[in-house]
Amino acid sequence: MWLRLFNYFKAVRSFIYALTAFLCIVFIIIFSGIYKKSHDLIINVMYEQAESYFNLIVKTRAWNANSGGVYVIKDRDVESNPYLEKLGIKPDINCENGIRLTMRNPAIMTKEISRLMESSGVTFHITSLKLINQENAPDEFEKQSLRRFEKGEKKVWQIDRKGDTPLFRYMAPLYIENSCLACHANLGYKFGDIRGGISVNIPIKRIDAQLKNSRNILILTAFGTMVLIITVIYFMSRTLVLRLEDARQKMRRQALVDELTQVYNRRFLMKKLKSEFDRSLRYESRLSLIMIDIDHFKNINDTFGHLFGDVVLLRVAQIIQANLRGYDVLARYGGEEFVIVCPDSTVDEANAVAERVKEKITKEVITDGAHKASLTVSFGVTERRLDDTLDTLLSRVDTALYQAKNTGRDRIVIL
Question: What distance in Å separates the CA atoms of residue 39 and residue 212, rounded to the nearest whole number?
Fold first, then answer.
């Protein structure tokens, strides 16, 4: 029901809608910012971790290259690097004690370190667009990264969710140094060229789940907060609108109702009388009027004071109202005068109403605790005639009341 009240207050309704929309947008922005900040924080941690792995591998490779390669004992689990022989480098050395050593150059060392790290899920991959070893062929991410390095980019990363395990993929370029030329000069590289890159792949299944969980929690929190705010706005606006409606009804009533007697005022009477008069003409129905005046009311004011006079007016209005039919309309016409509009009523029916009201008022002893008064009242009664206008109808009922007062009061005159 209360929603219908907004129809009376379109400005309030528009304000409530605008406020709700504004707050929803604000909270969406706030929670989106919180999510982005937490997301970026986790990404930065992953980025720094991947960068640390990359730098460690690069430094290890530099140590290897600057040392002219590192030799390890060759056994059944260690094989010689066949690509070194293609470059004119003999990978194996026989020692005097019978132990055989084989060279681990930076490329194969990177691959073997990657194998050692597989148990933790972290892997490294050295690759290039100019391959010596086809096993180092780049995948699509690495290929795109290498092309971007050629255009000047220094680092590339992305989150890859294509496989069963989501990965944080990081890649940075490898530059030709003097120690690299021994193996790579024949491929056309010179000092400072980008000869490839190393990609670092870190599994982020747990972290990715945390990101999704954080996102879901933030969405639920944002939704719950917005629902709470909308609910608060709902009840606050409901209270506001109900109070505004109550104030509107009071103002409307004050505009239509006499403040002292709490019956309709003259303004409403004239509007209602015109409406009933027009309806009577349109449907050729009966319409009667009763005008009432309290006899010797000036003496009551002079004797007991105006405050008691107000008590008398209120009580008379209450008695009249209590003895009317459901469709009769009572209004204070002015001073101590009242008018009763009797729709669909003959003059005899109106006279019966006047007789009943007169009897009740005459029997009443009105008191405020300090003063008492018994009253008589005079009545003028008339019915609409075929040649009547609203003015002639009012004039005739006023004349009937005037005759009642001039012929002794305490009586009903019908014209």
Answer: 10
Active site residue 85: no
Q: Which of 118, 140, 245, 336 is catalytic?
A: 336
157 and 50 in contact (C-beta within 8 Å)? Answer: yes
Encoded amino acid at 133, one letter: N
The parts of the chain modelled with pLDDT lower than 70 are: 1-12, 85-88, 132, 178-189
| CB proximity list for 297: less than 8 A, separation 6 or greater | 309, 312, 335, 336
Which domains are present in the chain?
266-414 (3.30.70.270)
Tokens of 208: 């990715």
Pick from 291, 292, 290, 294: nearest CA to 376: 294
Crossing angle for the helix pair 266-283 and 205-256, to the nearest 10 degrees: 80
* Whole-angstrom distance, CA of residue 383 vs CA of residue 166: 95
* pTM listed for this prediction: 0.49
The CB-based long-range contact list for 174-181 (8 Å cut-off, 24+ gap) reads 174/58, 174/61, 174/126, 174/198, 177/62, 177/65, 179/62, 179/65, 179/66, 180/65
Residue type, 42: I
**Whole-angstrom distance, CA of residue 370 vs CA of residue 2:** 46
Identify whether the C-beta of residue 40 lies closer than 8 Å to the C-beta of residue 32. Answer: no
pLDDT tens-digit map of 183-208: 655 566 677 778 788 899 988 888 77
For residue 401, the model assigns a pLDDT of 96
